[in-house]
Write a structure and sequence with these properties.
With 460 residues, this protein is an alpha/beta fold. The protein contains 16 helices and 15 strands. It has helices at 48-67, 82-91, 95-112, 128-140, 169-175, 214-226, 240-254, 287-291, 296-304, 316-334, 347-354, 359-374, 378-390, 398-403, 412-427, 431-443; strands at residues 13-16, 21-24, 33-37, 71-75, 144-147, 150-153, 190-195, 210-212, 229-236, 260-267, 270-272, 275-276, 312-314, 446-451, 454-459.
Length: 460
């Protein structure tokens, strides 16, 4: 009898930005993996650059949950920020309405993309007492100081400052946006608390009415829900400095002996047609801009086609290629209508993901499974289904996928009416009209397939 004992899962390898190498992931507590990702600042629709970090967190969390019994995924909402205040003023709306509306937009767009929801989604404004406590600790320990209603972190008090981003603090200052404050003892010192005017959001504190600096928010919220030390902190590479560098400094100084984040994961940036995305260049795209023109699964597969640590160049032709790839995968499933997802993930697929979330290599295994399924192997179709759905694609039926949506052209009722008219024309031997209808639909991207059970259609 064949041995059916499952093979052990491959070792998960992750690239740690702090140690600047790829190494085995060793949990602080194998019974409970804890992950924190920086979430959105809610004042506008999320753009496709935001999507990169969201998808990296999504794939990482799915994989961790496959390998360990318990995973807590925390992603925050920043709902107090000077950008929010400025936008509310521009719109003539109150801040609470703006942040509620744009948080809902964020949830709708990430849901449309099939993102898993975090276990905990703390909001900065709900955690002001946690921030005040940390700021008080930092002042008491000599790592922060009060000046003119501000509280600032003293960078010189932390000798390891700059170790995360790997550069000398003086070099960091040369390329960074540094908050200007005449009360700073050192140009690199950063704001933990700042005073608020009457028209700015503010909270009472021992240092006067004010609001938190950006960096203290994530330190306070990660500590509240994951503890002083946790496994993984992630986000875009644009956050490496100053945000994550400052988070690490204030957290380690606040809680000596802690590790804060044991691993740091950073995804590379997104370009659009080879250039940095910018409203001034006219290449700024929200998620909705893309989803109005392409299926969510195609956009998701396009992003997964590049490794999270490599720069991704968004092009519409790339999204179209991703859609054609999905067409092939769905045709492979269409040939096996009774296929169901396998209980276990294919070994080569799982090994690829365990190699620092190597989604391009994982997709290569899907192509192999699709080829085998198209050649008649039902088991390959089952493996394809399980692996693809783990990545968040092939969630529709082949019929629904190929029918698409009304946004893709003629709606279903119009198509069905024309098919009935074509059938009547054929019965009356009016083949010219029947061909005319077929060509009319083909011009709209609709392919007709005549078979023993009647005529079916799909969007090409």
């Amino acid at each position: 009898m064949a041995d059916t004992t499952p093979l052990p899962a491959p070792t998960l390898m992750l690239h740690d930005s702090h140690r600047r190498t790829t190494l085995p992931f060793e949990p602080l507590d194998p019974a409970h993996i804890r992950v924190y990702y920086c979430g959105p600042t809610v004042y506008d629709l999320p753009h496709i650059g935001n999507l990169r970090a969201m998808l990296s967190a999504d794939i990482l969390t799915r994989l961790l949950r496959r390998l360990w019994p318990r995973v807590t995924f925390v992603r925050n909402i920043t709902d107090v920020d000077d950008k929010i205040t400025a936008r509310a003023r521009e719109n003539g709306e109150d801040i609470a309405s703006l942040t509620a509306r744009t948080t809902l937009d964020f949830h709708q767009d990430t849901s449309a993309m099939g993102m898993i929801f975090p276990d905990i989604e703390p909001r900065a404004t709900h955690h002001i007492p946690d921030m005040l406590e940390m700021i008080g600790r930092l002042i008491a320990s000599g790592h922060a100081y009060e000046a003119d209603g501000h509280v600032l972190f003293s960078v010189s008090s932390f000798p390891d400052y700059g170790a995360l981003s790997g550069r000398d603090p003086d070099e960091l200052l040369a390329g960074a946006r540094v908050e200007v404050a005449s009360c700073k003892r050192d140009p690199g010192d950063f704001v933990l608390w700042k005073p608020s005017d009457a028209d700015q959001p503010g909270w009472d504190s021992p240092w006067g009415r004010g609001r938190p600096g950006w960096h203290i928010e994530c330190s306070a919220m990660s500590r509240r829900y994951l503890g002083e030390s946790f496994d993984i902190h992630g986000g875009g590479s644009d956050l490496l400095f100053p945000h994550h560098e400052n988070e690490r400094a204030q957290s380690l100084c606040c809680f000596p002996g802690s590790r804060f984040a044991n691993y740091w994961l950073h995804n590379a940036m997104l370009l659009v047609d080879g250039e940095k995305m910018s409203k001034s260049l006219g290449n700024f795209l929200t998620m909705r801009d893309v989803l109005d023109k392409a299926p969510a699964e195609a956009l998701r597969l396009f992003f997964l086609g590049s490794h999270y640590r490599s720069t991704l160049n968004f092009t519409w032709s790339g999204v179209d290629t991703a859609k054609k790839t999905l067409d092939r995968f769905y045709r492979a499933l269409e040939a096996h209508p009774d296929a169901r997802p396998s209980a276990e993930l294919p070994v080569a697929f799982l090994a690829a993901l365990c190699d620092d979330l190597n989604t391009p290599a994982a997709l290569a295994t899907l192509h192999q499974m699709a080829a085998r399924a198209l050649a008649g192997e039902t088991d390959a179709a089952a493996d394809l289904l399980s692996a693809a759905q783990f990545l968040g694609v092939l969630l529709a039926t082949p019929g629904d996928w190929f029918r698409g949506s009304a946004a893709d052209g003629a709606d279903e009722q119009q198509i069905e009416n024309l098919i009935r008219e074509r059938l009547a024309a054929r019965r009356e031997k009016n083949f010219a009209r029947a061909d005319e209808i077929r060509n009319e639909l083909a011009a709209q991207g609709i392919t007709l397939e005549d078979g023993p059970q009647g005529t079916t259609w799909r969007r090409s």
